TrEMBL record:
Protein name: Nitrilase/cyanide hydratase and apolipoprotein N-acyltransferase
Keyword field: Acyltransferase, Hydrolase, Lipoprotein, Transferase
Record-level Gene Ontology MF annotations: acyltransferase activity; hydrolase activity, acting on carbon-nitrogen (but not peptide) bonds, in linear amides
CDD domains (alphabetical): nit
Keyword Acyltransferase: yes
Native organism: Rubrobacter xylanophilus (strain DSM 9941 / JCM 11954 / NBRC 16129 / PRD-1)
Length: 276
């Protein structure tokens, strides 16, 4: 369809363990992005509480809960689709929390819930990360309609697992959301590379809001929130400060590209059936 466009914003912030402060910063940036014309606005991973694992449990909330109500009412007031990055979710019957992404419609309703599937249990530059100590992995891929576009949900480390994004693309995703808090060490070498690869191989827009700066535990996050088009071109990115990347997503262009350069359609799934 010609003329199908969406103005999207990927918000960049440097969250602290203080939920009230993070909410003030997020709200101001969401309002700014909406005033600049964005109708699809996305927050980064763990935007409401980040940087000190000792306080994660006490800052976790059920879904729906106070933070999802806040996001829903802001989406309704501003008349936008709002991707709530991710928050710490208290999951009934589980010791561990969810690292959970939510999507709201302009009427304030919660239209999708996705729990981070791939947990960041790695060692990098001598530092050990063990996300699974606090977080339980999700078990489902989620794509949802956001007005004229279909958005595929994911969180941060998920970006290293192309199978998830291929599944989302096959379910109709035209925008792949990757809210993140990438480490500085991995970000400088892999962040843009991975985002552009996911965009090119799935012929989809990538909307990647990110945490930046030094966290309460001393860890540095990479920032460089980014919007990438289906050809792999970076349309907008953020410098090292609070702000947002803003770009128009042209779904007519995406459809033309998928028709003229049909690499998605040229897949040979029979050859890769050993994958699963
Ligand atoms: O994949 C990476 O390099 C960073 C991932 C990460 O920081 C996370 O998932 O929290």
């Amino acid at each position: 369809m010609e003329g199908r466009t969406v103005c999207a914003a990927a918000i960049q912030m440097s969250s602290t363990p203080d939920r009230g402060e993070n909410r003030r910063v997020a709200e101001a940036l969401i309002r700014e992005a909406a005033a600049a014309g964005a109708t699809l606005v996305a927050l980064p991973e763990l935007w409401s509480c980040h940087g000190l694992e000792e306080v994660y449990r006490e800052n976790a909330e059920p879904i729906p809960g106070p933070t999802t109500e806040f996001l829903g009412s802001l989406a309704r007031e501003l008349g936008i689709y709002l991707l709530g990055g991710s928050i710490l979710e208290r999951v009934s019957g589980s010791e561990r929390l969810g690292n959970t992404s939510t999507l709201y419609a302009p009427d304030g309703s919660l239209v999708a819930v996705y729990r981070k599937v791939h947990l960041f249990d790695v060692e990098v530059s001598g530092r050990r990360y063990l996300e699974s100590a606090n977080i339980a992995p999700g078990g489902e891929a989620v794509a949802a309609k956001a007005g004229p576009v279909t958005v595929g949900l994911s969180v941060c480390y998920d970006v290293r697992f192309p199978e998830l994004y291929r599944l989302l693309a096959l379910r109709g995703a035209e925008v792949l959301a990757v809210p993140a808090a990438f480490t500085l060490q991995t970000g400088k070498d892999h962040w843009e590379l991975l985002l552009r690869a996911r965009a090119v191989e799935n012929q989809a827009y990538v909307l990647a809001p990110a945490q930046w700066g030094r966290k309460a535990d001393g860890r540095w996050t990479y920032g460089r929130s980014m919007i990438v088009d289906p050809w792999g071109t970076v349309l907008s990115t953020c410098p090292d400060r609070d702000g947002y990347a803003l770009a128009t997503l042209d779904l007519g262009y995406l459809e033309r590209l998928r028709a003229e350069f049909p690499s998605l359609a040229n897949r040979r799934p029979r050859v890769y059936r050993g994958l699963c």
